[in-house]
Amino acid sequence: MNSTSQKQVARPGAASLTPVFVRLKLSLLRNGLRQSSGRKAVYITSIVLVALFTALQLLGLTALRGTAHLAALTTLLAVVLALGWAVVPLFFASGDETLDPTRLVMLPLRPVPLVTALLTASLIGVGPAFTFAIIVGSVIATAHGAAAAVVGVFAVVLTLLVCLALARAVATANVRLLTSRRGRDLAVLSGLIIGVGMQFVSLGVRKLGAAGGLHALVPVADVLRWVPPGSAMDAVRAAGDGSYGAAVAELALSAGALALLLWWWQRSLTRLMTAPDSSTLQAATQPDKARAGRSGLAGALPAGRTGAVMLRSLRYIWRDPKTKTAWMSSLTLGVLVPMLNAAQGHGSLYFAFFAPALLGMQMYNQFGQDTSAFWMVLQTIASPRDAYVELRARAYALSLIAVPYVLIAVTGVAAVTGAWRSLPEVLGMSFAMLGALLGTGAMTSALFPYSIPQGSGFKNVAPSQVGIAWLSLFGGLIAGAVICSPLIALTIWLHVSGEFGQMWILLPLGAVYGLGAAWAGLRLAGPRVVARLPEILLAVSKG
Amino acid sequence: MDQGRAPAVRIEGLWKQFGQQVAVAGVDLELPAGQFIGLVGPNGAGKTTTLSMVTGLLRPDSGRVEIGGHDVWSDPVAVKSRIGVLPEGLRLFERLSGRELLEYTGRLRGLPGDEVDRRATQLLDVLDLAVAQHKLVVDYSTGMRKKIGLAAALLHNPEVLFLDEPFEGVDPVSAQTIRGVLERYTASGATVVFSSHVMELVESLCSWVAVMAAGRIRAQGPLAEVRGAAASLQAAFLELVGAQRTASGDNLDWLGGGAR
Q1: Is there a domain that residue A391 lies in?
Q2: Long-range CB contacts for residues A301-307, cutoff 8 Å, separation at least 24
Q3: Coiled-coil region(s) at which residues (chain B) (predicted)?
């Protein structure tokens, strides 16, 4: 190599690098359209929806112009946007391939041109366009006067850049986490976290509606106006009010934050691209953390297959992100739905059936939850008895949580609704339902197993097995209802004939009935599991 | 070796087809007991499919498999306690630590708790996993996964051990460890059947080989017999499957690293 070409290779200037990254980003966006027709449809639909939403909020913000305390809203909005930019890429790290700088680690790139090029490239995309529209809408809504308009231009640029630089800096600093197993586990849990987050957002909106105006936001905005990029947004209001000093200070604060973020980003980028890979570091430095081998629980469980299977099932509820998500959602919704209904005044104790229903469903597709590791179970099951004991142990593990949970949840709902008189019958029916779902769950686990894709937080069925999954779930639920029907008939009869004094009998009857239904289901499922072992393995290995 | 012993594995007319694709087209094999047996063949020869059917993981379309005189599909109770399996491409219970995985497997196999403890400790030691025993298997490297899988397969002291590509993606140190354990295991009279597409490995390890290509057995017998007059198993194998060296043309004449 001669010296000039060496120089060229070693130091590509920002001028030459930026167009390359912009073109790369455009190609990636364009390639989003070159997927299968199904994904293309999703892609286009999402773009159209975002465009529609953007237009609507732009109109909305413009229409709000002149409302009192509107700046409080736009300041809050800017901070929330920045927060979103900081958090969302952590969950969807694979969403933007240019976000992972480790892909560029073998290229001879200097930090400053690289940061410039990456920042420019990240301005392109649906997300930045959406953010840009919100910020522009906010400025239009709050800018009063020429000075405010000028400040507004700076505010738009600063807010957008702070959002993007924040997203990049946080992602780069956490790239080790994101590419590690813990990061991927976190991504699987993201569905749950976002779901819970939405509950809080909707709660906040309702509170705001109840408070009857934006003035409720003012105390919050008083703090946030000194938090970039909220400060840039509030500068527009300040300029409109004539407090130019405050406006300049607020803009400078945001600009300072931007500079700090860029510095942090560049520093983590340099460190990341010159340090050894995370897996190497982890292997070399991570101290060996001893897990409690024989904890109290392990010692208390029965010996043999029953105890081993129970312990593994319980460990998986906590350690396997997919299983954890399913359980957390069930445990949360099981109380949340009846409680919310009760809180809104039109609650009935019968909503408490959500608790046993959602927990009982965890028995469904037991072997799918094992993934292809089911072969380890398969190798040790040789007789219907083995299969029965295996399924029974899983049902035990589930009941260990479900029975006390249902007891507490139903009693809790009874306390909130004050329907103490119906407690015995609802509790009895709940146990019957739980037992019926355990029984039918064991059967459908044997007859209609399907794979649960592991990496994604949002896919719970392998694409080719959606039919089986629905059949399993709905067939099982209908069968469960049919199994419970004698008890339902008895309840109705007691109600109709006015025998309210006899209602208590439904509690022991329901408990025994549920036990019987679960036992029968497990007994029937045992021989079917043994007969279908290779078929089950094949069905659960597609994820 | 003694010819009087019954074969460890007897396979008759084993057939498996996925749609139009015939994966295993009538395999007949008699694998002698107490030997280190290699099932060799190129990728896609049907080795994994054959081993899956032999170990009860996959149901054959037709054919019979007997292990120690017991039919795999009609007498699973007798067979499953006698075999150990390490499949390729299937997961383990990765959210357990190495030791927890062994405890779980041992108790599923019906071994008493303290016996599982004792064996697990020894296996973890011998396989160099003692340091990582409390780490989750999901954080293990490929070599460590193969080793913990091997430990799980050996825990109940099976008569026949089936290993699908046990050395694939394994570093040299782990490979040597695995090798040592397997050699000790066969020396005690047990049988190891493993599949591989690395001829040198099979040649250095095995006393008996079966060569498989396109779903059929092309040759089987003691290593020396199968190798015949050829210089190496590799040469004998290429001859058997009829693979001709493709003419290395002059298309890549620019490739050399020096000139520019």
Answers
A1: yes
A2: A303/B107, A303/B112, A303/B113, A304/A389, A304/B107, A304/B110, A305/A380, A305/A386, A305/A389, A305/A390, A305/A393, A305/B107, A305/B108, A305/B110, A306/A389, A306/A392, A306/A393, A306/A396, A307/A393, A307/B107
A3: none
Please answer yes or no on whether A541 and B92 come within 8 Å at the CB atom. Answer: no
Residue A345 lies in a domain: yes
Has residue A281 been placed in a domain? Answer: no
CB atoms within 10 A of CB A414: 21
Same structural domain for residues A232 and A317?
A: no
Q: Strand (E) positions, A253-402?
A: none
- The pair of structure tokens assigned to A274 is 């010159």
User: How is the beta sheet containing B216-222 ordered, strand by strand?
Assistant: B83-86, B160-164, B191-196, B36-40, B208-213, B216-222
Read off the pLDDT of residues A22-76 as tens digits, 9 standing for 90 and up: 888 888 777 766 666 766 777 788 788 888 888 888 888 888 877 777 888 888 8
Half-sphere exposure of A307 toward its Cβ, with a 13 Å CA cutoff?
20
Written as six digits, the tokens of B141 are: 């490297």
Q: Say which DSSP state A216 is in.
A: G
A344 and A230 share one domain:
no
The CA-based angle A436-A437-A439, given to 5 degrees, is 65
Q: Does B177 touch chain A (CB under 8 A)?
A: no
- Distance between CA atoms of residues B96 and A314, nearest Å: 11
Closest-CA distance of chain A to residue B77, Å: 5
Q: Which domain holds residue A180?
A: 3-275
* 3-class secondary structure, A499: coil
Name which of A461, A474, A497 is nearest A322 in CA terms: A461
Considering the domain architecture, whether residues A424 and A321 belong to the same structural domain is answered as yes
Same domain, A259 and A162: yes
Closest partner residue to A383 (CB to CB) among B77, B100, B138 is B77
**CB-CB contact of B106 with B97 (8 Å):** no
| B70-71 and B83-86 beta bridge pairing | unpaired
What lies within 8 Å, CB to CB, of A4 at 6+ separation is: none
- Residue B25 pairs with which residues in a beta bridge? B15
User: What pTM does this model have?
Assistant: 0.75
Q: Please, what is the end-to-end C-alpha distance for chain A in angstroms?
A: 49
Task: Quick: pLDDT tens for A449-504.
Answer: 998 887 665 567 777 777 788 888 888 888 888 999 999 899 889 888 888 788 88
If contacts are CB pairs under 8 Å, which of residues 129-168 in chain B contact chain A?
A: 131-132, 134-136, 138-139, 141, 152
Strand partners, B164: B195
> Distances in Å between the alpha carbon of A59 and those of A129, A141, A154?
16, 10, 22
Residue type, A189: L
Q: Is there a single domain that holds both residue A240 and residue A323? A: no
Which string of DSSP letters, residue by residue, matches B75-91?
Answer: -HHHHHTTEEEE-SS--
Q: Which of A379, A381, A542 to mutate to test the interface with B (most CBs of B within 10 A)?
A: A379
Verify that A211 and A337 share a domain, yes or no.
no
Residues present in chain B in total: 260
Beta bridge partners of B220: B210
**CA-CA distance, B10 to B32, in Å (whole number)?**
9
Quickly tell me which residue has 């054919």 as its tokens: B63
- Residues B194-204 pLDDT 10s: 999 888 888 88
Number of domain units in chain A: 2
Dihedral angle over CA of A145, A148, A150, A155, nearest 10: -150
CA dihedral A272, A274, A276, A279 (to 10 degrees): 20
